[in-house]
Amino acid sequence: MNATDALKPMSPIQVAQTRAFIDGLEQGSQTYWDMVEIGDELSREIELTPELVILYADGVEDYNPWYEGWRMNTWRIPGESPFGGAIVPPLLVSHFVLSVQFDHTKPFAIGSIHTFHDSEILEPIPVGSTVRITTVATDKYEKRGRRYVRHEVTVTDTASGTLYFRETRDILSL
Questions:
Q1: Is the model more confident about 138 or about 23?
Q2: 93, pLDDT greater than 90
Q3: Which of 56, 144, 169, 174 suits a disulfide with 111, CB 3.0-4.6 Å?
Q4: CA dihedral in degrees (136, 139, 142, 146; nearest 10)?
Q5: For the chain, first and last CA: distance in Å?
Q6: Across residues 36-46, what is the average pLDDT?
Q7: Average pLDDT over residues 78-98
Q8: Full-model pTM
């Protein structure tokens, strides 16, 4: 046990995750540029629960009644918006792209900076949907002596196949 493991308010899970992260760094992590090949594809599913939506909306202080699919003492409700029921804040899914973009089976890439993204919102996402976030590495390029990796991202409904969201992202790799 290290001295930092006793810091509070870290839970046992946070201590284990922090220790695993530091151990990974000590094992000689690569740069993102070295870890990613053009054509690499990663994807994950995520259920956009009313609770997740409220946590996100509270965190970014976006208090819009369109997002409310949950109410204290009532729990899940259909909600209301101009699109029918409650919808997901448009950029919530963009927040989760990084959790897909980095391959969690490999040591964490050192020296990565998210430098660009261009988001296209195609359809409102109903609260309660399960979506698949897919990222594909489409380009590696150098600009002013710096190395970048470009990804194309799609977010689709796992049940209907509806394409909700597209994004292009660049990561600077030191």
A1: 138
A2: yes
A3: 174
A4: 0
A5: 32
A6: 95
A7: 92
A8: 0.80
* Vertex 75 angle, CA 69 and 76, to 5°: 40
* Domains with residue ranges and CATH for the chain: 1-29 (no CATH), 31-49+86-173 (3.10.129.10)
In 3D, which of 130, 131, 121, 126 has the Cα closest to residue 79?
Answer: 126
Nearest alpha carbon to residue 155 among 134, 170, 137: 134
Instruction: Round to whole Å and give the CA distance between 166 and 39.
Output: 17
b/e per residue 75-112 (b: at least 16 CB within 10 A): eeeebebeeeebbbbeebbbebbeebbbeeeebbbbeb
Q: How far apart (Å, rounded) are the C-alpha atoms in residues 42 and 102? A: 8
How far is residue 45's CA from residue 128's CA, in Å, rounded to a whole number? 13
What is the pLDDT at residue 6? 64
Orientation angle between helical segments 50-59 and 92-101, nearest 10 degrees: 100
The CA radius of gyration of the chain, in Å to the nearest whole number, is 19
Question: What value, to the nearest 5°, has the Cα angle with vertex 101 and ends 96 and 104?
Answer: 100
Q: Look up tokens 């292009």; give the residue.
A: 168
Residue range 156-165: mean pLDDT, rounded: 98
8-14 mean pLDDT: 79
